[in-house]
Amino acid sequence: MQEHITAGRLNGASGLIARNGKVIFRETWGTYKPDTIVRMYSMTKAVTGVAAMMLYEEGRFALNDPASKYLPELANMRVAHDTTDAMGKRTFYTIPADHQITVRDLMRHTSGIIYGGRGNTIVHKQYPAGSSDAARKFDGTAFMDKLATLPLLHQPGTVWDYGFGLDMLGLTIEKISGQTLGQYLQANLFAPLGMTDTGFAISADKATRYAKPLPSDPDTGRPQARSPELTQPLKFECGGGCLSSTAGDYMRFALMLLNKGSYGESRILGRKTAEYMLTNQLGPEVKNLMANTDPTRADYGFGLGVSVRTQPGRGRVMGSVGDFSWPGASGTNWWADPKEELAVVFMSHAPGPIRWHYRQVINALVYQAIVD
Questions:
Q1: Average pLDDT across the chain, whole number
Q2: Would you put residue 331 in left (φ > 0), alpha (ψ -120 to 50) or beta?
Q3: Are residues 120 and 183 in the same domain?
């Protein structure tokens, strides 16, 4: 890692490894310190998934409820079908969705509502690029109003395709709980776990600890930035990609899931709830496009907010059947391996394809060190 810092490949990074419930490796490189705060991007999704399952345990919703029960804007969605016009130009027409989007669809990326920045179709171009882009442009009401005007790319429940499901889940949590997503998370997850530096906004007294990327991508030369800037208020607290955290805070969260819902004296989820959340939810009827989103998660299944390894030897990185994870677009990564009683958190700010390289490198470095 130090060689990569010296070579100008990364501005800084930090790593934590826990085994058998104890942190056994803790290191920082470059500009990073143990309390450096990093944008989580899609590492937010697992946190939002846990928050929803806490409400599920209270009987506040059912996974197969229509999402429109809580977000009525989703009641009459239509699905795009490709065609060509009289001039031979590609276009589309729409048909009614076969059935309602469910809360489960929001959690496992099978809603048909996709990220605009993840494809080049006419439909993709109508959507906001991603969670951060949406949180910068829209408040929650305007965001849902926008999605309601757009066609689904797929029939609900038929295709795993990366999109705004966990952002909509965060708004569902707000409707059910009567709190903002940040308020609910702080009271029910962050405070009990001791995650003191995790949230949707970075206060002025913590701003000096906020990690910066390199000015430009070392491979493409393109400018790199943190977007949106979390020292400024978001228009809504997006459950799909807007948290910031530290390596230590997120390790507490990872160990809670690895320990089937508990950490220290705090029980966040029941054991069976955690097991269900961390079990593959994609049946053979669902087309899985996960490799298009992150090649290092090719051949994984997906639970309720996290990817899950279902087969030995099929993944592009080492691990065990049942390991679970979901990384962030900026280069942040984490995973937990129940068979090895292992949890790993890696923090950096290296967006672009370079992040996939580091996911493979860190994976190899961690697993080669296991000697028992």
A1: 95
A2: left
A3: no
